Amino acid sequence: MLTALYSHDVLSPLFPFVFWLYGQSSPLLYRSDDDFVTLLSETGVRQGCVLGSMLYALSVHPFYRAALSGLNARGVAIIDDFHINGTATDAFRAFDRYADLLRASGSGLRLHRDHPTKAWAMWLRPDPPPPEVVSGCRDRGLTLVDSGCMPCLGSFIGTDDARITQLTRATLPSYSRIIDGIIALHHRSHTQQAALLLRYCAISQPVYLLHTLPPPITHSLCVPFDTAIRHACCTLFDLPSPLPAEALFDLHLPFRFGGCGFRPTVRTSRAGFWAAAAAALPTIVSTLHQGTVLQDLPLVRHLQTLHAWALEAGIVPDEAAFLPSWSDTLARYTTSQMHPGMQKVSHTSSRGASMTLGYTP
Question: What 3-state class would DSSP assign to 149?
Answer without folding.
Answer: strand
